[in-house]
Structure formats: structure tokens, C-alpha cells
């Protein structure tokens, strides 16, 4: 399967406004709404692109952890499968050096990380060792990454139509009212389809559509969820993932993050605990670009020390979605349904 320019434009539009109506998208893209809907269903069915919702992972609200795992080589596949089945482990990557697997976990609290994640790691046969770094500031995430195939006018129009629902437009609040259990029931449906409507969810839950619409509005307004349109990495033009472990002087993290946001291929920038205090993830066109980006980082961020770079061999699970070896999704989702948001 090859993606056309029209396919990429649609994905780019949904990256900006994941829940935009087809009618509004049609006005901006100049394509009939029914054509866009059919095109999106084709992309979804092929596993080439999907819209999901996941917990924001802001450390002021919950615990975001990055875990390095070493395992017995002949048990690597079994360990990977076991880790991917843990709902709180939202992302599983296979690394090329110094560790076998790299995990991202999100839990409601540090205590829950210990009970829901760390305790399970100890029980997995073949898992030899793990090390955890905790996020202290989430500066930017993959929800801000774009294909950048639309022009500035189209981007502005999409943002205007999406309003507060535009991806990455509204940072999470450090204080929010806990979502009631009735509202949390909606989260697994949004994880499986970030474009799910109140009517879709109401049918599945057996509730009145008007009731679910009110609940959905509150969930969206809480900003505890990050909505994003994902694309299979092989179609992105950036097939290589690299993660850097860096040290940045404590007083310069915000300035460093501001510079890093200027790199168009950044998927994550976060301050962390551990032997290094800053993590950067980028999608690159080739392994040769690792050095290019390292030079750019050192030129633009005075005082940064790039301690280690790790290239990923493959991604097994990305924010709850299971992936095929070619980076398309299998369609299987393991949402973190047990999280008690704000509770």
C-alpha cells in the first residue's frame, strides 16, 4: 500500500484536529465530506492511520515513567508479549543497544506504578533487570508531531474550526475535578477510536445519547486525555526512531525545551529523574541523521550533554495500540482502563 498526497493531507488535518467533523474538514481540504469519510475508513482498515486518546501523562496529575528492560535473549519475544499485555505500559519499543526493550508507563500515582507495573515486571519469566526514570516535566509529546503537508492557511483554518480540541492546543490543568466513574466508562471507547461520537458510545453503553454527550463534553474539557492521529511510521517519511539521554542544567530545562520544539521531527521532550535528566525522541529519515541532529542540539542548546543515543529496531506497542512489524497497527488495543483519574 502507498499513501497518496490526498491521504497524507487528510492525516495531517486529523493530526491538527483529531475530532474534526468531515463537513468542516471538507471545507478546508476542498474534498467532499463523504469522500473524506471513505478515505479515512480505508486508511483505518489498512492499519495505516488511526485516531486514539490516551492519558496525557502530565507529572502534575499522574506518574509517567520510562523503563529500560534487559531480558534473556532466547526469551525476548515472550517478555515483549507479556509487557505489551500490561495496560499501564502504553508503549513498548525494541532497542538496538544497551537494553533490550524500552517502555513508557502511565499510572495514576507513583504508588500505583509500584503495584500495577513494577510488581508485574518482577514476575515475568526471562526479564532479568529493569531501570526506571520518572518524568518530572513533560515538555512536548507526539500529539504535536505533524506530517506538514498542508499550507499555513489550511493549518490556521483547521485550528480555528477545532478550537480548544485542536491537538496540543490546551495544556492539561494542574488542578482538575476528578472524573466520575460514569465518565471514565467512556475512556476505553475513545482509546479505540478517538473520533467516537456520543451516539456511538451511547449505543455501546446502553445509555441515552444526550447523557453521553454531556459526559463526553466534560471528558474533553478536562484535558486529562491527549487525542492524536497516528500514522504508521513507514508512511511518515521518517522510518528511524532515536532516543537521546541527556543532561541539561536544572535552570535551563524550559529554555532547552523551547529550542527543541523548533525541531519538526521531535516526538517527545521530557525532564526526568535518573543518571540523566532529559529525554528527547525524534523520528528521522535515516540513521545518518542521528549525528546531524546531535550537532544541531549542541549548537542550539548551550550546556546540553548528550550522554547516549539509542536507535529503535521496532515498535511493538504505541500508546496502547499493538503494531505489526511494518509499523501498521494490528487493530488490537490495550487501553489503560483501570486508571482512576484524579481519584
What's this entry about, in short?
Strand 3 and strand 4 form a beta hairpin. Helices cover 34% and strands 28% of the residues.
Helical run tally: 12
pLDDT averaged over residues: 93
| Strands in their spatial order, largest beta sheet | 2-4-3-10-7-9-8-5
Strand content: 25-35%
- What is the architecture of one domain at the second tier of CATH? 2-Layer Sandwich
Largest sheet: 8 strands, antiparallel, barrel
**Could you name the CATH topology of one domain?**
Alpha-Beta Plaits
Helix/sheet category: alpha+beta
The gyration radius over C-alpha positions equals 20 Å
* Outline: globular
Number of strands: 12
**How far is the first residue's CA from the last residue's CA?**
44 Å
Order of helices and strands: HHHEEHEEHEHHHHHEEHEEHEEE
Outline the low-pLDDT stretches: 337-343
Output the CATH class name of one domain: Alpha Beta
Helix content: 25-40%
Description:
This protein has helices at residues 5-16, 22-29, 33-45, 76-84, 110-122, 152-162, 181-184, 187-192, 198-205, 209-222, 253-260, 289-300, and strands at 49-55, 63-71, 89-95, 101-107, 127-140, 225-231, 240-247, 266-272, 278-284, 305-318, 321-323, 329-333. It has 343 residues and is of the alpha+beta class. Among the domains are: 63-142 and 233-333, 2-Layer Sandwich (Alpha-Beta Plaits); 177-222, Orthogonal Bundle (Arc Repressor Mutant, subunit A), CATH 1.10.10. The strands form two sheets. Strands 2-4-3-10-7-9-8-5 form an eight-stranded antiparallel barrel, surrounded by four helices. The protein starts with a helix and ends in a 10-residue tail after the last strand.
Amino acid at each position: 500500500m502507498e499513501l497518496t498526497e490526498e491521504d497524507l493531507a487528510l492525516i495531517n488535518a486529523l493530526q491538527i484536529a483529531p475530532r474534526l467533523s468531515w463537513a468542516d474538514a471538507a471545507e478546508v481540504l476542498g474534498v467532499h465530506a463523504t469522500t473524506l469519510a471513505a478515505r479515512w475508513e480505508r486508511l483505518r482498515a489498512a492499519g495505516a492511520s488511526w485516531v486514539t486518546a490516551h492519558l496525557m501523562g502530565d507529572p502534575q496529575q499522574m506518574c509517567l515513567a520510562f523503563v529500560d528492560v534487559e531480558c534473556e535473549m532466547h526469551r525476548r519475544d515472550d517478555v515483549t508479549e507479556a509487557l505489551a499485555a500490561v495496560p499501564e505500559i502504553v508503549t513498548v519499543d525494541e532497542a538496538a543497544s544497551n537494553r533490550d526493550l524500552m517502555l513508557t508507563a502511565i499510572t495514576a500515582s507513583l504508588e500505583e506504578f509500584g503495584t500495577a507495573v513494577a510488581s508485574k515486571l518482577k514476575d515475568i519469566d526471562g526479564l532479568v533487570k529493569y531501570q526506571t526514570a520518572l518524568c518530572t516535566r513533560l515538555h512536548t509529546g507526539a500529539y504535536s508531531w505533524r506530517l506538514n503537508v498542508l499550507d499555513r492557511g489550511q493549518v490556521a483554518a483547521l485550528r480555528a474550526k477545532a478550537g480548544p480540541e485542536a491537538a496540543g492546543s490546551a495544556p492539561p490543568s494542574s488542578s482538575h475535578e476528578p472524573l466520575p466513574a460514569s465518565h471514565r466508562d467512556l475512556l476505553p471507547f475513545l482509546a479505540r477510536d478517538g473520533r467516537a461520537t456520543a451516539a456511538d458510545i451511547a449505543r455501546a453503553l446502553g445509555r441515552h445519547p444526550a447523557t453521553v454527550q454531556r459526559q463526553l463534553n466534560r471528558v474533553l474539557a478536562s484535558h486529562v486525555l491527549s487525542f492524536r492521529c497516528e500514522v504508521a511510521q513507514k508512511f511518515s517519511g521518517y522510518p528511524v526512531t532515536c532516543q537521546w539521554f541527556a543532561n541539561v542544567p536544572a535552570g535551563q530545562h524550559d529554555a532547552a525545551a523551547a529550542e527543541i520544539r523548533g525541531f519538526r521531527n521531535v516526538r517527545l521532550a521530557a525532564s526526568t529523574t535518573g543518571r540523566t535528566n532529559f529525554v528527547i525522541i525524534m523520528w528521522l529519515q535515516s540513521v545518518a541523521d542521528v549525528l546531524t541532529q546531535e550537532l544541531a542540539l549542541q549548537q542550539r542548546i548551550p550546556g546540553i550533554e548528550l550522554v547516549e543515543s539509542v536507535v529503535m529496531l521496532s515498535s511493538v506497542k504505541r500508546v496502547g495500540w499493538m503494531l505489526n512489524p511494518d509499523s501498521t497497527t494490528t487493530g488490537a488495543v490495550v487501553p489503560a482502563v483501570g486508571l482512576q483519574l484524579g481519584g
